[in-house]
């Protein structure tokens, strides 16, 4: 998989992309990550990429011209399955979206900033708009890193035990059951006896009931879906 990220602040990705699963996936060539500085495609001598909004109002708007130049350059080199814009008013990121994105070959992610991008970018280039929650971040970089992490971990071979991802929360619209490891007793706090029984059918039944109970208690909206 190839992921191209269009951003004003490439340095913000150095931490998330140089650690853990994303680092390993990059080193093993299971994912190719490319960061593109939108300012490099500005014709302004000061590399300016924003301007005042037509009609007045507070804040600045990212200009269409440098974004268009960069997108057109990348599109001339390969086909993109999705061109994603990270924005608070996009569709809420959910596991089903992540699952679908993980099956793609080439993804482009545009990180917004200021009051957003000139809407013509969204009208004519963007194929998917994603939000990571009903709140506003300074820019789309952190949100884009979340999407990349969620997608990359589902690429076959990235996680050594591929069945692990299939039992994560939200894969079946349920929260995951509680998990425990050694020691079996700590400070008098015991692991549930069923998990130590060795009876796999009973363990599976316990996990299923716990997942249902936790979902009903903490996220009943998932059951409505």
Task: Report on the architecture of this protein.
The radius of gyration is 22 Å and the shape is elongated. The strands form 3 sheets. It has a 5-stranded parallel beta sheet. Strands 3-4 form a two-stranded antiparallel sheet. It has 9 helices and 9 strands. The protein folds into 2 domains: 2-152, SPOUT methyltransferase, trefoil knot domain (Alpha/beta knot); 167-224, Orthogonal Bundle (Trp Operon Repressor, Chain A), CATH 1.10.1270.20. A hairpin with a 2-residue loop joins β8 (185-186) and β9. With 225 residues, the chain is of the alpha/beta class. The chain has helices at 14-17, 20-27, 64-77, 95-101, 119-124, 141-152, 162-166, 200-218, 220-224; strands at 2-7, 32-37, 50-51, 61-62, 82-92, 106-111, 128-131, 185-186, 189-190. The model has no long low-confidence stretch (mean pLDDT 94).
Topology of helices and strands:
Blueprint: E1 2-7, H1 14-17, H2 20-27, E2 32-37, E3 50-51, E4 61-62, H3 64-77, E5 82-92, H4 95-101, E6 106-111, H5 119-124, E7 128-131, H6 141-152, H7 162-166, E8 185-186, E9 189-190, H8 200-218, H9 220-224
Parallel strand pairs: 1-2, 1-6, 5-6, 5-7
Antiparallel strand pairs: 3-4, 8-9
């Amino acid at each position: 998989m190839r992921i191209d990220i269009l951003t004003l602040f490439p340095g913000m990705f150095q931490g998330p992309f140089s650690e853990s699963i994303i680092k390993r996936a990059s080193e093993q060539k299971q994912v190719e990550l490319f960061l593109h500085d939108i300012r490099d495609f500005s014709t302004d001598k000061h590399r300016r990429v924003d301007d005042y909004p037509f009609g007045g109002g507070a804040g600045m708007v990212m200009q269409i011209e440098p974004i268009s130049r960069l997108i057109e350059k990348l599109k001339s080199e390969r086909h993109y399955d999705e061109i994603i814009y990270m924005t608070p008013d996009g569709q809420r990121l959910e596991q089903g979206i992540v699952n679908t994105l993980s099956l793609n070959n080439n993804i482009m992610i545009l990180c917004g900033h200021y009051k957003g991008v000139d809407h013509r970018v969204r009208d004519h280039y963007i194929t998917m708009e994603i939000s990571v929650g009903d709140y506003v971040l300074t820019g789309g970089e952190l949100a884009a890193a979340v999407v990349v992490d969620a997608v990359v971990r589902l690429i076959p071979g990235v996680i050594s035990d591929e069945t692990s991802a299939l039992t994560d929360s939200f894969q079946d619209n349920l929260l995951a059951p509680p998990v425990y490891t050694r020691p079996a007793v700590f400070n008098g706090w015991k692991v549930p006896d069923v998990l130590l029984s060795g009876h796999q059918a009973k363990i599976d039944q316990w996990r299923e009931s716990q997942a249902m109970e936790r979902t009903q208690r903490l996220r009943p909206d998932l059951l409505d879906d």
